[in-house]
Design a protein that fits this description.
366 residues, alpha/beta, Rossmann fold, seven-stranded mixed β-sheet, 11 strands, binds glycine
């Protein structure tokens, strides 16, 4: 098992990464739990696959599990779900010594984290992410949030977990499309700040998708290390944490314009978003075609989408850009984007006007 410690003056928690961790998950979690009971919040798919094993492991550690299964998708990722979950916890007389565990993908992590941050003004929580995407990104760094009618993740908090426990064995039951979706967030770290990791992915990326445990552990470890370093420096995204949003402003607009339908999942939207951001970086002269080609070639080799879905490509530039402006980084209606100078060297570009993006839209998207 590999351990990373995310640590600065305010934060200090471990990220455990390994294979076969669920057998002893009760013992591993016990040190972060103040009581002899724990709430485990999961979705129906994960519950069906892992509930008996997890309950057994907590029983061995003499901790009682209250397993709560909720139905989730991007549409149900809203404040009503948080209120309903809070009420379920109150029905068990939740108190400030209780701990909740987010056992699922990114949506479960975001909902449980937000719920933990507001129930009784904050109770402890642990992240046990079960998708590649949540293992390499959303479970680390304490971002919690839900969607509302104005956009994605607009209601939320920064609230750090007590621990993150990543078992790579769960990836063996994950559909290929979900693995690729997580891969988009892995490659993001290489493009933002880690050339050597990008080169390693060029050689070994396929192994991650094909099920090589050592390659998966290496990629997850590298991703979580890169993310931890950024969060340690800028927990609340006043500066460099925004780099982690490479491809996301375009990506969120794609997801939203697609009505959050399963035909484009989050990682696919981010992958297309990264390509659009690098294309814009080329048009604006920050980087060159060689960098763009290296990135798009790798995306194609691995099987990530690189082009807007037809339905969204047909929309007007104005439609597309007015969706992008809903992003949390927008100030005075000017858009902030993460652009690249080179592989391993991304930067934050503030103050991009909507009219400029509308003008460039055709060039970026074709
Ligand atoms: N997913 C981006 C971040 O955690 O900041």
């Amino acid at each position: 098992m590999k351990t990373i410690r995310l640590k600065n003056n305010q934060i200090n928690y471990p990220i455990f990464i390994g294979s076969g961790l669920y057998a002893d998950i009760g013992k591993l979690c016990k040190q972060y739990i103040d009581k002899d009971r724990v709430f485990i919040i999961s979705d129906s798919v994960v519950s069906t696959l892992y509930k008996p094993e997890i309950i057994r492991a907590f029983k061995t550690a003499k901790v009682k599990c209250i397993f709560i299964s909720i139905s989730v998708n991007e549409k149900k990722k809203n404040i009503n779900t948080v209120i309903n979950l809070s009420n379920r916890l109150f029905s068990y007389n939740v108190d400030r010594q209780d701990t909740v565990i987010a056992f699922g993908g990114g949506i479960i992590g975001d909902i449980v984290g937000l719920t933990a941050s507001i129930v009784l003004r904050g109770i402890k929580y642990i992240q046990i992410p079960t998708t590649l995407l949540s293992q390499v990104d959303s479970s680390v760094g304490g971002k919690t949030g839900v969607n509302n009618i104005y956009g994605k993740n607009l209601i939320g908090s920064f609230y750090q977990p007590q621990a993150v426990i990543i078992d790579t064995d769960v990836l063996n039951t994950l559909p290929k499309r979900e693995l690729l979706s997580g891969y988009a967030e892995i490659i993001k770290y290489g493009i933002i700040k880690d050339t050597i990791f990008f080169e390693w992915l060029q050689k070994n990326g396929k192994k991650i998708i094909e099920g090589d445990t050592a390659a998966r552990i290496h990629a997850i470890h590298k991703s979580c290390m890169n993310k931890s370093k950024i969060v340690e420096e800028d927990e609340k995204e006043h500066g460099i944490r925004a780099l982690l949003n490479l491809g996301h402003t375009f990506g969120h607009a794609i997801e939203s314009l697609n009505g959050f339908k399963k035909s484009v999942v989050h990682g696919e939207a981010v992958a297309i978003g990264i390509i659009l951001a690098v294309r814009l970086s080329c048009i604006e002269g920050y980087t060159n075609e060689t960098t763009f080609n290296k990135i798009i070639t790798h995306f194609k080799e691995i099987g990530l989408p690189t082009q807007l879905p037809k339905k969204i490509a047909k929309l007007t530039a104005k439609n597309f850009v007015s969706e992008m402006v809903k992003d949390k980084k927008t100030i005075n209606k000017n858009i902030t984007l993460i652009l690249v100078k080179d592989i391993g060297n991304a930067f934050i570009k503030k103050g991009i006007s909507q009219s400029k993006l509308i003008k460039l839209h055709k060039e970026i998207t074709t």
